[in-house]
Amino acid sequence: MSETKELAIQAQGIRLRTVDDVARIARMMAESGYFKDARDAAQAGVKIMAGNGWGIQPFDAMTGIHVIQGKPVIGAGLMAAKVKGSGKYDYRVREMTEKVCTVEFFQGSESLGVSSFTIEEAKAAGTQNLSKFPRNMLFARAISNGVKWFCPDVFSSPVYVPEELGAEVDEQGDVIDVQHRVEPTSEPTEEPAAEGEPVITGKQVQALAIAIGSADFGTDEDGKQQGRAFVSWLAGREEAVGSIKDLTMTEANTVLDRLGSGENGAYRTDAQKLAEAINAWHEHLDLQRAPVPEFDPSPKKAQKVKDMEPIREDEEVVA
User: If you count Cβ atoms within 10 Å of the first and of the last residue's Cβ in the chain, which end, N or C, has fewer?
Assistant: First the structure.
């Protein structure tokens, strides 16, 4: 097995050494079709990278981590398992009814504090499926709060359970339906962007929004400007477009082909293609900042070259 294809397997699972490792695993996960909230490699890659930063294996990340409103959320079971497996912290459930859940957190034998969550707080927060699984919902919120308060170093960044961001979950705390769609703001105008060219379609706008969103340029004005410049360069335009809706259908297809595959609502961004396109764009920008000077011979050299007689076929060239 070659080094580029080898996966380093350790006792605790797969070690992801490079972005290429993540891309291969993400592509395999997405193409399996088993994960409703990660239909393309870019979405799967985000989940896997989030899990990798928290010491969570790829498959566990795919099943236990979701991205809601741009924030990674973790199922209560996976969050509780991380606390138990930390080797530093532990917890005990002191009370669990349909009215309240109380969880006490420990570091060794020392009690760090108690996290409680009541049915009244859950109702005020608009927790989904509270009438079906009240004990599960209350446990999830008690665990989540306790991790934030007493053992935040179990994770490298703030974490949430899906219920905190309004997601609907089942009895096990798994998200029932997480959609990662970017809804088009409106249908493009019927006027053609360029004479003789069909206008970009609504589905192309949606696919482009997903693809460019995966590049993570940011949502501020500077990030949006970079995104438009990137799209324009991919489309072969010299000047940046004011909006992706200004592209023609042909230009949109060119951009989409360079970033992924599929059409008619089934478009998937390819993490490898996206990375290659961004790298190529950065190289293009570097050349723009420091262009190679044009060759401009001095008048004397130019005249000398002009006055040279052409070499005859029977003439020997002496080196």
Answer: C
